[in-house]
Amino acid sequence: MLNACARLPVRRKIALLCCGMILPLSVMTGCAADAADPSGRRATDSPTETSPEARKDRASWTLPLDDFTTPGDNTINYAEQLAVQPCLEDAGYDWPVPWQDVGTTPTPTLSPFGARLFDEQIARTWGYHPGEFQTESSRLWDEFLAHTRVTQEQPGFDEKFKSCIAAVRDEYSTPSYEDQLLVSQYAAQSQERARTDPAVTAAAARWRECMEPLGLAALPEDRHDMPTPELSAEFGLTPFGLPDPSAGARSVPSAKEIEIAVADATCAESSGYSETLYETTWNLQAHIVETERATLDRVRQDVVAQKEAAQRIIAERAPAAPSP
């Protein structure tokens, strides 16, 4: 199971919208700017033990820093949508937040914390496309997003939205941007260093050798860079791995895409790339948790408080589920 590092902005993770911009409730762990190692020590030399909360699971790509990160599902964003609704509607802006089943997994190709998942089963089903479960909850959310795009064009919406959202974030516990950015930087640092670790680069060389029978024009040095920009364009994907609107919002993976993706996933497993990358990343993050424990424990307290506040908002304000 491979972590492609990029935290993909799939439909169900879209946060509050304001004049065409995404205003997320929290900064999710992802490919951020490089952060300096606060200790200066080699993280790969550290033991693999970490906090008792973190548990290794390569299938869902869980990592030690997940304990200190707001989840990538729609729960917190949904709560904030509900909380901002009365303020916007009092000002005359229609903001019909629908019922949502926030307990369901929005996509089989993302981890709970937004890491891109990729294995042979996913490749056979989705190729390199992001998978989505089409449910009543997701249908209602699509309708809501379409409606908000129109609302955002109304005069004065931008300033009123900023005022409403600021009031909501003052009232409810929200981890500071700086804290979540720090965790994001730590995660990006560990992911970047893992991909350049000698054991991982050796596994990447074995992966390329395994992929050679496909006869592709060029293979990246790192499995992380698959599909290449050329293949992405051919498969109707943007450089961020999302369906290209010009190719159709619900484009279906081609037979060629499935063939290459399955070979990619199979070679990543047989070469040891997936396992080596995961173990190396785990060790790097465990080292960060060990050396930055005091700071991270404070961040986690804020994250827990935010999730509890989100659950209270949803319990108090969410509309009833539609009848079967």
Descriptive account of the structure:
There is one protein chain. By secondary structure, the chain is mostly helical. Helices cover 47% and strands 2% of the residues. It contains ten helices and two strands. The protein has a two-stranded antiparallel sheet. The protein starts with 15 loop residues before the first strand and ends in a 7-residue tail after the last helix. The model is unreliable at 1-52 (pLDDT under 50).
Task: Quickly list its features.
2% strand, mainly alpha, single chain, disordered N terminus, two-stranded antiparallel sheet, 2 strands
Assembly state: single chain
Largest sheet strand order? 1-2
What Rg do the Cα atoms give? Answer: 21 Å
The helix count comes to 10
- Strand segment tally: 2
pLDDT averaged residue by residue: 81
- Unreliable stretches: 1-52
Helix content: 40-55%
Structural class: mainly alpha
Name the beta content range. under 5%
Largest sheet: 2 strands, antiparallel
Series of H and E elements: EEHHHHHHHHHH
Which term fits the overall shape? globular
Q: Give the distance, in angstroms, between the N- and C-terminal Cα atoms.
A: 36 Å
How do you describe this structure in short?
The chain has helices at 75-90, 120-126, 136-151, 157-171, 177-195, 198-211, 229-234, 255-270, 273-291, 293-317; strands spanning 16-18, 21-23. The chain has 324 residues and is mostly helical.
